[in-house]
Amino acid sequence: MAKSINRPSFWIFCLCALAALAILLSLGNWQVQRLAWKEQLIADVDSRVASQPIPAPGPSSWPSVARDSHVYLPVTVTGHYDHSREVHVWFALGKPQGGPYAGPGYLILTPFKTNEGWDVIVNRGFVPDAMKEPQSRPDTLVTGEQTLTGLMRFDEPKNWNSPDADKVKNVWIVRQVAEMAAYLNLPPEKTAPYWIDLTKGQGVNGLPQGGETRITFTNSHLQYALTWFGLAGVLVLVFGVWLVRTVRATPPRAEPESE
After folding, report:
1. Which H or E run contains 75?
2. Where are the domains of the chain?
3. Distance from C-alpha of 196 to C-alpha of 152, rounded to nearest angstrom
4. How does pLDDT run across 58-70, given as a tens digit for each residue?
5. Model confidence at 142: pLDDT above 50
6. Buried-most residue among 34, 55, 81, 183 (CB within 10 A)?
7. In contact, 112 and 85? CB cutoff 8 Å
8. Distance from first CA to last CA of the chain, Å, rounded?
């Protein structure tokens, strides 16, 4: 005899399982799309870093300057440092790329006045903790006209739990151009919306130690996609087992008595 399943709870459960499956598959597909985007981004950045440096974009080009198209782009710029002002970004340097120094220390970000009259903040590189203050490293304060080569960088993410800069001690964690420019008393309308990481050090012994830019991207989208698709598969398996057991446990429909 055919078995009857007319309980509303059965159909509600089926609809919920179907909705959950649709959500899991959608999340998996979204991660596949993110994977393709991230792989393209990494390929674009690798190609960009290997390209020949171009003149750093000036004020007329700033409206078209964007992170996606310009981050890590090699540029050159000519002008003079203003060593009377610096931003000190605390940094624990592990394996060094640009020189022998490592450990706790600071990245030295200095205003740079270009020959065209606009300003850009330059990350000159890493110094050990004991050399935070400029008076402790007078030989590193290069003077005269300089032609620099470096990589364009943009604001680092900042949210509610990001530590604020200690502007009294001049100790920073998160770098954002507008905030640093205000601290350095740079005019916003003449300050580039990016900073430049030098690709090599300057001064005595190569300090500050340039070339410490870490070009890394977290790419866990394949793992996330497999996780969502795996959960979808588990859901199908569990639902199938439940359905079989439910059907087997359902009593047969009573046949109407014949007169």
Report:
1. strand 74-81
2. 19-43+219-249, 53-206
3. 5
4. 999 999 999 888 9
5. yes
6. 81
7. no
8. 20
Give the Cα separation of 53 and 49 in Å (integer): 9
Q: What is the DSSP string of 140-160?
A: G---S-EEEEEEEE-PPP--T
- C-alpha of 221 from chain center: 15
- Assigned token pair, 206: 């190569």
Nearest to 49 by CA among 213, 189, 184: 213
- Alpha carbon distance 21, 27 (integer Å): 10
Q: Percent of the chain, pLDDT > 70?
A: 93
Q: Where are the beta strands (DSSP E) in 82-160?
A: 87-93, 103-114, 119-128, 146-153
226-255 burial string, b = 16+ CB within 10 Å, else e? eebbebbeebeeebeeeeeeeeeeeeeeee
Helices in the chain by DSSP H: which ranges?
8-49, 67-70, 177-183, 221-249
Burial letters for 69-104: b for 16+ Cβ neighbours within 10 Å, e otherwise?
A: ebbbbbbebebebebeebbbbbbebeeeebbebbee
Amino acid at 196: I
| Long-range contacts formed by 132-135: CB under 8 A, 24+ apart | 132/88, 132/105, 132/106, 134/83, 134/86
Neighbour count for residue 45 (Cβ, 10 Å) = 16
pTM: 0.75
CB 86 within 8 A of CB 180: no
